[in-house]
């Protein structure tokens, strides 16, 4: 199967410089170097590398999906991946390969030594080869975009769970999202570390933003509550919505911990336990005029 | 085993990300079937338990989701399938607190209490199929 593609390989090796020039011109016309994400020199280097590998590959094989084409596919994958990360559109990314078509066709058409049949064959082969490579570019692009999305989701997940200090001795952990991923471990460890660092007496775990509490979630909560207790802090759970409360009863999970409807209620309780009270200022006018002055 | 009905959606269970996806899909389908918030939460939680068992004990598998609509009842039915080791003693597995892993041992019994319909078919060495349904 690994038959050398003589017509195309001849065409590319005899006209490499011309093909590169035409190709780059096409790319520039299509605006490939605009937007400042890639400069003309970089584009030129990518094009030159591509053509020199292509020349070598065509001398060995015409099977685009075969092993001989592996280095070329690798190069394209690198280019495609970096463009996906830089935020290129699929069109802009595919342009790199597809714009080589015209340059290659033109080079084939200029071959006076090819018979009509050879011309047709070389054009056809150039076309199917570049189509296949273009699709490969899109595959890699798509996969890279998905990887970017997954990574962003992870980052958001970690960002969205800070431990906040509400008062001296009172910490709060507002949980948002699903609680059964690896991140739960991280989040819970963060809370325990904050308890140690601040010597907190109370940790309020607010689960208003947790859509489902199943046995695994409950187990994570139970472990955290137990560990916090060992470190001298009491946990208060807040934000258990009615439907979650009912579900927990059916599941048979008991957290054995004080729970409050809202984070505000839990905070009030913690303050009370610390012998603090919140009172309305007696002379609001005085405070106001001070602020104004 | 009976073939899945035509309107069923089959989802793979191979990772804990799939379990998250299953909860989202079940939520969407339960809302579409007209279940209220409490019923939705119940079937989602049951699905979460069974999907995780399928993953942890069954070595992965599938969940098929269909609508229940027979004039009287509207809701959804979920079928979890795996080709894992099977459950030798179903009564024991259902008992609260029984676990062969590191769990609370509440998932299976809890899922049963959260649903209107619950059935386990399991053959040791062949696999496990658990069917649940929730309707209003
Ligand atoms: N699909 C399955 N295949 C084989 N064994 C299973 C399967 N599902 C459950 N089991 C067995 O039944 C036991 C009880 O399951 P159950 O879901 O009640 O508890 P758990 O998964 O161990 O803990 P929890 O669900 O509370 O986190 C499991 O420990 C396991 O041995
Ligand atoms: Mg379980």
List strands and helices in order, with pairings.
The complex is a heterodimer of chains A (293) and B (136).
Chain A: H1 6-14, H2 16-29, H3 40-58, H4 70-86, H5 90-98, H6 100-109, H7 116-159, E1 164-167, E2 170-176, H8 182-198, E3 202-209, H9 215-230, E4 234-238, H10 242-251, E5 258-260, H11 263-273, H12 284-292
Parallel strand pairs in A: 2-3, 3-4, 4-5
Antiparallel strand pairs in A: 1-2
Helix pairs in contact in A: 1-3, 2-3, 2-6, 3-4, 4-7, 5-7, 6-7, 8-9
Chain B: E1 9-13, H1 16-32, H2 37-56, E2 61-69, E3 74-82, H3 90-94, H4 107-114, E4 117-123, E5 127-135
Antiparallel strand pairs in B: 1-2, 2-3, 3-5, 4-5
Helix pairs in contact in B: 1-2, 2-4
The structure holds adenosine-5'-triphosphate and magnesium ion.
Residues 49, 52-53, 103, 107 of chain B line the site of magnesium ion.
Report what the structure shows.
- Chain A: This is RsbT co-antagonist protein RsbR.
- Chain A: InterPro entries: Bact_StressResp_Reg, RsbRD_N_dom, STAS_dom, STAS_dom_sf.
- Chain A: It holds the Pfam family RsbRD_N.
- Chain A: Residues 160-274 form the STAS domain.
- The complex is a heterodimer of chains A (293) and B (136).
- Chain A is α/β, with parallel strands linked by helices and 293 residues long.
- Chain A is built from twelve helices and five strands.
- Chain A has helices at residues 6-14, 16-29, 40-58, 70-86, 90-98, 100-109, 116-159, 182-198, 215-230, 242-251, 263-273, 284-292, and strands at 164-167, 170-176, 202-209, 234-238, 258-260.
- In chain A, α2 (16-29) packs across α6 and α8 runs parallel beside α9 (215-230).
- Chain A is elongated, with a radius of gyration of 32 Å.
- Chain B contains four helices and five strands, in the order βααββααββ.
- Chain B has a five-stranded antiparallel sheet, with helices on one face.
- In chain B, β4 (117-123) and β5 (127-135) form a beta hairpin.
- Chain B is globular, with a radius of gyration of 14 Å.
- The two termini of chain B are 27 Å apart.
- The interface between A and B is medium-sized, with 20 and 25 residues.
- The complex binds adenosine-5'-triphosphate and magnesium ion (MG).
